[in-house]
Amino acid sequence: MPVSLLALVAVALVAGSAEQTAEALKANGSRNIPIRIVRSELLVPALVNGQQLTFILDSGAHSFFLDQNVANRMKLTSRERVRSFGAGDSQVLIPQIHGLDIEFAGSGISGETAGIIDLAPISAYLNMPIDGVAGAQVFSRSVIAIDYCRQQIRVTSPEIFVLPSNAIVRPITEIGGNYATEATLHFAAGKEVKGMFLLDTGAGPITIGITRQQGERLSIDTKSARQETIPALGGNFRAGVVAAESINVGGASARRIDVHVAENTSGGLAAGPYTGVIGGGFFRRFLTIFDVPHGRLVLVPAQKCEAGSQ
User: Fold this and answer.
1) Residue 101 and residue 109 in contact, taking contact as beta carbons nearer than 8 Å
2) Structural contact between residues 275 and 216, judged by C-beta atoms closer than 8 angstroms
3) Mind listing the pLDDT tens digit for each residue in 136-165?
4) Could you tell me which residues come within 8 angstroms of residue 155 by beta carbon, excluding any fewer than 6 positions away?
5) pLDDT digits (tens, 9 = 90+) for 180-228
6) Structure pTM?
7) Residue ranges in 52-156 assigned as alpha helix (H)
8) CA distances from 105 to 46, 57, 108, 141 (A)
């Protein structure tokens, strides 16, 4: 989970073309799920062992996670721990709970495993209780269309999903269990970096983030940049925020963007076999469709949504 559980204020975007696509998905039999968008995090309802909970929808998480206090309240115990890391500096040992019944978007999953982590820093940041995280399993089984403007997602069976004619389609590959696609980041004076970027809806505050390693390669001076500290797994994610001309993901682009350049010396964004992450600041500019079963990211261009989001 290299860059999960990040949060910052965002503005939701969508277009008429995106609305038409959403209506087409509904007509094809997709299930609509209302969500909340709080400080750019996608909050979705879920049932765990029959209890109604609120999860963050996080494409950057490898699996399901439950908050430690929620697990205690449900009297769930673990005999197994797995070492993991996030965007913070520290590795963490995560207790594993097996045999859970989890229901999301009307689909039940029996015998599921969830890691137990402390979500208190995220809950405090969002000023509301967060009970868990829904990760890769959700995205791997269905086509997930995220409509930031309407604050809803549509979950569609891969067998009936119809690719929008006006969409930009990019291939999804996996790097260390994380979804990724190729993109090119352009800075001023002709400086650019091209590489694989992780696709992370849990990195809500970030349009684009690059690793400390890439920042050093580009000779970016983060010490004189605006500093941001954001709660993450394994401690805080620390970054210098600099301006870039644009990011191009195939034919989909965003101009005049902020780039979070990691300053952590260890953790998922210190270095890695990827250039960085694409987060909510980019995804909110489109009707964003994760079609993982068919190995593709689908982006429908959007215009500003008047309603906005929190």
Assistant:
1) yes
2) no
3) 888 998 999 999 999 999 999 999 999 998
4) 30, 31, 33, 105, 106, 107, 142, 143, 144, 145
5) 999 999 998 888 999 999 999 999 889 999 999 999 999 998 888 999 9
6) 0.87
7) 68-73, 120-126, 136-141
8) 8, 12, 8, 12
